[in-house]
Each structure stands twice: as structure tokens, then as C-alpha cells.
């Protein structure tokens, strides 16, 4: 299980040796600390819990303070638990860094997309607008939602206005262009979900390693 938590810093561009421009997203990944190892015998399933980014002790409640003290690690802002059958390979207090990732591999990056609030059907679903001529009463409204006499109701799942964004999104098979170990940075080709400062999960791609 090659995975790490990180924070999206922003986007920039780098140049290859051939002079080509490559747009990249900068991710400050890790170091991530193992805070708990769960097994079938003790918890009913196998998993590993990781902590990312140190937190001020006064901002951590008593139950979580006890949890971190039991593990012997500093309080963390973010905790994430990943199911794995390889839990015995991890030890509490062990650190995962960007050094565990190789340049050129394919990655899956999961994050929370930007929230857009309540939006209309045109922006949310890409619907076409109505006539813009004088007197038109159907410029940016939703079109017909149902038939007339039969079935005389709107079916569930029709695309319409509503909340847009702030969803868990995964981009697959993006290339890890460069790793800067001394700064805990990963440069990933292209864009990844979320806004600046958003927390993302980076892991080896499930598919696509053969065509890296």
C-alpha cells in the first residue's frame, strides 16, 4: 500500500530536458506518521491509521490527546485510516515520506472539489440556454421536465438546479514528474481536485503502471 496524505500548494510549470513545458500541481506530502495499527484480532478488521500535520496540543480534545499519547506521537490535525492486509509491515510511530515514491510512476489523487454553492442547470449540467430574443421567458431556465397527461410527474434523477461541487473526486493515472525530498514536495502532472490548502490522498495507481 503506497499512499500518503498531502496538502495542495498550487500549480506551476517545469521544463523537461527537451525544452517542453509540463504543467504540474505542487503537493506538500507528508511526513505522515503511523498512529495506530488495527488487526482482525483486536478490531475485527485490518487497517492502518495515519496522522498528518502537527497540531497545537491545546487544540486537541482529551480523548484524542490520550490516543496520541498512547501511540507516543505528537498530536496531528488530520487522521486517515486505510484498509490493508499488510498492516504487519507498519509500526506505530513509523513515518511515511515522499522518498517512498519513485519519479515517473502513475498515481491516483483523491481530494474534495471546490464548492460552487447553489447553481443553475446551465452551469451545473451544461444545458443549453433558451432564445435570448426580446420577449423570451425561457433564457436560462430548465427545459421540460415531464410529459403532460402521462405520466404527469417528474421522474427522480432529472438534472436541474442545486448544490454544485464539494464532492470527493479522484483523478487517475497522473504522472509523478518530480520528487523534492528536502521540502517534502511532489510535482504531479496536470490538475488535481480541490483548492489551495486542501487535503489530498496520493497513492499508486490501481491501473496504468505499465504505460508510465
From TrEMBL:
Gene3D superfamilies with a match to the protein in the record: 3.30.160.810, Translation factors (2.40.30.10)
PROSITE patterns reported for this sequence: RIBOSOMAL_L3
Record keywords: Ribonucleoprotein, Ribosomal protein, RNA-binding, rRNA-binding
Compositional bias ranges of the Polar residues kind: 110-121
GO terms of molecular function: rRNA binding; structural constituent of ribosome
InterPro entries: Ribosomal_uL3, Ribosomal_uL3_bac/org-type, Ribosomal_uL3_CS, Transl_B-barrel_sf
GO CC terms, sorted: cytosolic large ribosomal subunit
Annotated Basic residues bias: 122-136
Keyword Iron in record: no
Residue segments, region Disordered: 109-136
Keyword Ribonucleoprotein set for record: yes
Signal peptide residue numbers: none
Entry's Gene Ontology BP terms: translation
Stated role: One of the primary rRNA binding proteins, it binds directly near the 3'-end of the 23S rRNA, where it nucleates assembly of the 50S subunit.
Similarity comment: family membership: Belongs to the universal ribosomal protein uL3 family.
Quaternary structure and interacting proteins, as annotated: Part of the 50S ribosomal subunit. Forms a cluster with proteins L14 and L19.
Protein name, UniProt field: Large ribosomal subunit protein uL3
Amino acid at each position: 500500500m503506497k499512499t500518503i496524505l498531502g496538502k495542495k500548494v498550487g500549480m506551476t510549470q517545469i521544463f523537461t530536458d527537451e525544452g517542453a513545458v509540463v504543467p504540474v500541481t505542487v503537493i506538500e506530502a507528508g511526513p505522515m506518521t503511523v498512529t495506530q495499527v488495527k488487526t482482525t484480532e483486536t478490531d475485527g478488521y485490518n487497517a492502518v491509521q495515519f496522522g498528518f500535520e502537527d497540531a497545537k496540543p491545546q487544540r486537541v480534545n482529551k480523548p484524542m490527546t490520550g490516543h496520541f499519547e498512547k501511540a507516543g506521537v505528537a498530536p496531528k490535525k488530520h487522521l486517515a485510516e486505510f484498509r490493508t492486509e499488510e498492516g504487519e509491515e507498519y509500526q506505530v510511530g513509523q513515518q511515511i515520506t515522499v522518498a517512498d515514491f519513485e519519479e515517473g510512476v502513475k498515481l491516483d489523487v483523491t481530494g474534495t472539489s471546490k464548492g460552487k454553492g447553489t447553481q443553475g442547470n446551465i452551469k451545473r449540467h451544461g444545458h443549453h440556454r433558451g432564445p435570448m430574443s426580446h420577449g423570451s421567458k425561457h433564457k436560462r431556465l430548465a427545459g421540460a421536465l415531464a410529459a403532460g397527461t402521462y405520466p404527469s410527474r417528474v421522474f427522480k434523477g432529472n438534472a436541474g438546479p442545486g448544490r454544485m461541487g464539494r464532492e470527493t473526486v479522484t483523478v487517475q493515472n497522473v504522472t509523478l514528474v518530480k520528487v523534492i525530498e528536502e521540502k517534502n514536495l511532489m510535482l504531479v502532472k496536470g490538475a488535481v481536485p480541490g483548492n489551495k490548502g486542501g487535503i489530498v490522498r496520493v497513492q499508486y495507481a490501481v491501473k496504468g503502471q505499465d504505460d508510465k
